[in-house]
Amino acid sequence: MSERQTVCVPQEEILKQKEFINSIKELNLGRLKKYSVTTFGCQMNENDSERLAGMLSDMGYTETESQKDSDVIIYNTCCVRENAELKVYGHLGALKRLKEERPEITIAVCGCMMQQKEVVEHIKRKYRHVDIIFGTHNLYKFPELLYGSLNSHDRIIDIWETTGAVAEGMPIQRKQGVKAFVTVMYGCNNYCSYCIVPYVRGRERSRSISDIVNEVSMLGQHGCKEVTLLGQNVNSFGKDAGQHLSFAKLLSEVNGVPGIERIRFMTSHPKDLTDELIYAIRDCDKVCPHLHLPVQSGSTRILNEMNRKYSKEHYLGLVEKVRSAIPEIAFTTDIIVGFPGETEEDFNETLDILERVRFDSAYTFLYSKRTGTPAAKNAVQIPEEVKKLRFERLVEVQNRISREINLSYMGTETEVLVEGLSKSSDAAFTGRTGTNKVVNFKGSSEMEGSVVTVKIEEVHTWSLEGKVIR
Ligand code: 5AD
Ligand code: SF4
Prior knowledge:
Low-confidence stretches: none
Helix content: 25-40%
Number of helices: 13
Shape: globular
CATH topology of the largest domain: pyruvate-formate lyase- activating enzyme
Radius of gyration: 23 Å
Bound molecules: 5'-deoxyadenosine, iron/sulfur cluster
């Protein structure tokens, strides 16, 4: 069986980048050099930032929270919604003073936003203090770009328009010990009419199962207990690599990796959720009973306009099928409010699907017009005030449902993988249930990385609280 056809970056190229890493390390020898990376957007961007952190750490830089103390400042950007873009411009503007005070620092911007020509032009003209601009397809080339920048006063701009090959073997420094993100495929072929991702992340490329399993095995050996397999649409994993591969097969392979106790994945497109995958979630003991299945809208008419390729009924049928196979499963979703042409009736269909599915939680977004996507050309854009009012109604309904579902945990004993100290309270430890509920409890650092049984004693909309009983 031929396992892959995905094109990888040649190993000579990877070795070349490692030489640049070593050259910068020599430059930094004996000096206390620091870096900061600020990430916008999804977990895939977080994972890319972990790669940048890995490269920087191998170059002899240490991480700092303070940009003022940084020698290298990176913004890893997102362009899925306009808000994220505006924030990046705000941050870049604020760095101008710092660059005037410390001209020797390097400011770099990368990520999805940079794959748009007009953005790069704008940064070139308005943010002259930015030293390096690079995109999503050539992230692995960062050592070479940084080396070039440190050795010249010219600004470096390196954006690849075409879909890049998959880079294996570059360093990575992960944020969390107990949990890790593992990107299993890059890009998206779906062209939902509102979404910019296929234009900036390119066509789908799957990693090979053996590369993924090797990475997960290393994580298992180093104390990681939970992996989240990432892709824009993991259900089409392997389709690009040709024959015999499927995401279900990948799940069962990862399920066999020693040390790993929990497997999560996101995101699944409803049009590609196969029976094979449903059975894999049911049958692989480490795969958590949680499915993130973005519905986007409850109106079949709007779903058609969105090019989602399923109807409301099809989605509801899927939910029923999954629930009958895995009764304890938790569903979460993404919803867009105010897609062009969305009427009050369409919006009511979205409220209706919330009530029918009863999602554990939903990420809710105001539709944001993205230049270059078909929906941006639609003449019937919804006024901001209407979007906001609908958004508030949606959040109110979802919050009630999330709270009601959480209430059903009251008094139950539930297994929680302990992640560490809770951010919200010094006294509390935090972890998640298999169904992805955040649980806070009094604990101790020895519990970190183990699964404990917590009796739930208090319930909130976003989290649960309880007492460890085992
Ligand atoms: N406007 C609002 N939300 C969007 N998303 C993607 N594109 C847009 C847009 N133009 C949302 C979708 C997707 C999530 C990651 O972001 O709900 O599932
Ligand atoms: Fe965007 Fe649709 Fe691809 Fe998700 S599946 S990344 S929403 S185009």
